[in-house]
Amino acid sequence: xxxxxxxxxxxxxxxxxxxxxxxxxxxxxxxxxxxxxxxxxxxxxxxxxxxxxxxxxxxxxxxxxxxxxxxxxxxxxxxxxxxxxxxxxxxxxxxxxxxxxxxxxxxxxxxxxxxxxxxxxxxxxxxxxxxxxxxxxxxxxxxxxxxxxxxxxxxxxxxxxxxxxxxxxxxxxxxxxxxxxxxxxxxxxxxxxxxxxxxxxxxxxxxxxxxxxxxxxxxxxxxxxxxxxxxxxxxxxxxxxxxxxxxxxxxxxxxxxxxxxxxxxxxxxxxxxxxxxxxxxxxxxxxxxxxxxxxxxxxxxxxxxxxxxxxxxxxxxxxxxxxxxxxxxxxxxxxxxxxxxxxxxxxxxxxxxxxxxxxxxxxxxxxxxxxxxxxxxxxxxxxxxxxxxxxxxxxxxxxxxxxxxxxxxxxxxxxxxxxxxxxxxxxxxxxxxxxxxxxxxxxxxxxxxxxxxxxxxxxxxxxxxxxxxxxxxxxxxxxxxxxxxxxxxxxxxxxxxxxxxxxxxxxxxxxxxxxxxxxxxxxxxxxxxxxxxxxxxxxxxxxxxxxxxxxxxxxxxxxxxxxxxxxxxxxxxxxxxxxxxxxxxxxxxxxxxxxxxxxxxxxxxxxxxxxxxxxxxxxxxxxxxxxxxxxxxxxxxxxxxxxxxxxxxxxxxxxxxxxxxxxxxxxxxxxxxxxxxxxxxxxxxxxxxxxxxxxxxxxxxxxxxxxxxxxxxxxxxxxxxxxxxxxxxxxxxxxxxxxxxxxxxxxxxxxxxxxxxxxx
Length: 760
Prior knowledge:
The protein is of the alpha/beta class. The protein contains 31 helices and 21 strands.
């Protein structure tokens, strides 16, 4: 009864999801403004004629003037939908909309789902071919076998754009990647293995053909369907695709051919394979039971029969889910970006290599965050990456694009693969493009960066990335056994002494030097020897600060837990000397369109005019680190003197101080935030403003406003934060906030790893 209630609740939740707040999962949005007569004249008549004439003269220009170059048709007739069977075109529409959503989510590809009432494969192919002018590529979906083979063949022959049947080739690619890594773990080769497969449908046949391309010998492949072993002379339920795998044998059942099999590939139905049959397979058997939702055999049964088996399923609640989303968004991304005329074998094999190699690399912090509690370390339980691994786009699409060019099917070849991958990564890691100048400058330095909270998993992942991508040396403060266990749990390959150093507060040989140094700095500020000893055993922020002070580290990062000002207190105690002082905290907020810097978010709750002036100058210096021209607005509730309030008076006084400094950047104030961001509004209010265009730096009159804007942008505008950047400390220290990610720590490490001379 409880199961019935659970199923009903799940059903109702799914229906609500599809119905509200708008029916369906897709909508169309304009990419160009349509706000006035001029926009209308350009979007439609007469301006649209110019784009039409350009395309008539050169059809390849359609990718420049229309959405075609990033538009995929997801086409079905609803004859073989998921586990639902032949439910018809209209009933299949929710599935096709879902496929379109995945294209958009994972690869930023636009789609139209097209459901066609046509059961004749030849006529269906005719309809699809007639749509070629509308799309950059076609994804065939949920068309029954053997009709799907006919449709795909006709479309590939007649169309000059990629045609990809995901049920076939998408499954085959992911199976190929999983098999590549499974054989590596088992110590076997494609050329030597025996394969037994159940299921003679589109996916099953495509997987077998892919295994042939990977090196499996045809004579070593045994195909079994509902009628038994596919053998020479059989006439029942045969087609040319099955016949290609017919064996000259008297064997008729799965049990007759399973003996000594290295790989079982199941694309059939539940209960096909038993534990007894698994026990008859070769040593270290590979069992891919991919029927969904109930596989050919459950993983626990496989494990009982063969404890050393390597297992994959089609389910998300077991390790090694063979999921087509690892493939199709990214193979289309690469194909579209080079204007490929087809998706050929070379591109599919490149896709396999990219997916397989990514699983063998260190797991990304973002993937680990999306799959908390799972062990994402290459091995029997982690053969292929997870769908939410953000590196898939850059790695796989780039490999596919390269293969398309090398195989001669690219009509718009790329000039620079590195730049292309960077652009793809930046669409996933939104900070990537803006951080390029910072990382380039950091590559010219070799700095020792000490992390105060060295046991934090985010810090560990950032340290791994530093050791792989940067020249800096991470130093982690924490208990060695905890750090090492954390590295092992997260699947990190870095090793202490080789890739990073550990400072153990309980046992560090420099302890006496550290507490005596701290005492000498703080003896006249109420710190006793006993207190200094305790602080240097327990306060990792203070320890890191002393390390920087003594030259045992070049810079420090802290703040992954606790309150910002608590950390700042110890920073000031130790490092605020020789002219260094905390000027302010600057946060770079990366939005969908343009970046926006916010200050002072943390240091001065009510800054004086002098502090505001320093913050503006410091912000300008740091903005230039990102290759941007500072355009700074001093923001207040008062606007150009219209209110005699405290914030307005302080901002006006700061403006006077700035004018005395004669800075080499544009600034203006005091003003409202909307005037700062809207040049047209600002020109109506104050026609002679120094600022030209929208401000890219907002300096606020108090911490409440700055912090509030920062958090609103993060939570409601989807802004990605880089920072906070602590200005005024010669780049020797940065205090982050508890919400920071591993990627955020890597970004701030690049900022800290840049020698101050690169931006002074």
